[in-house]
Design brief:
With 92 residues, the protein is mainly alpha-helical. It is built from 5 helices and no strands.
């Protein structure tokens, strides 16, 4: 979410402040250089397909699912994200 440049800057600042060992810094910088940022698998059409009218609620629902996806380390695929969206929109 922060982007490569900001992630690198934060790692360098932590190291400069003595809060990050050199080996950990190297791993973090390598990660910043090599990690492919995953694309969030849902869009507004997925929300409106559940009967939600276009508008601010669509963005709020997508943001909620995106936070869940990020907190899960981007592991959830499209079907899992759709299931989470349905849980939020259509609670039991």
């Amino acid at each position: 979410r922060l982007g490569r440049a900001r992630y690198r800057d934060l790692a360098l600042l932590l190291a400069a402040d003595g809060k990050l060992a050199p080996a950990a810094l190297r791993r973090m910088l390598d990660l910043a250089d090599t990690w492919a940022i995953p694309a969030f698998p849902l869009g507004g059409d997925d929300v409106t397909a559940l009967g939600i009218a276009p508008g601010p609620r669509v963005g709020a629902l997508l943001a909620a699912v995106r936070r869940w996806w990020e907190e899960g380390d981007f592991a959830a695929d499209r079907p899992a994200c759709l299931t989470q969206l349905r849980r939020i929109v259509l609670p039991p």
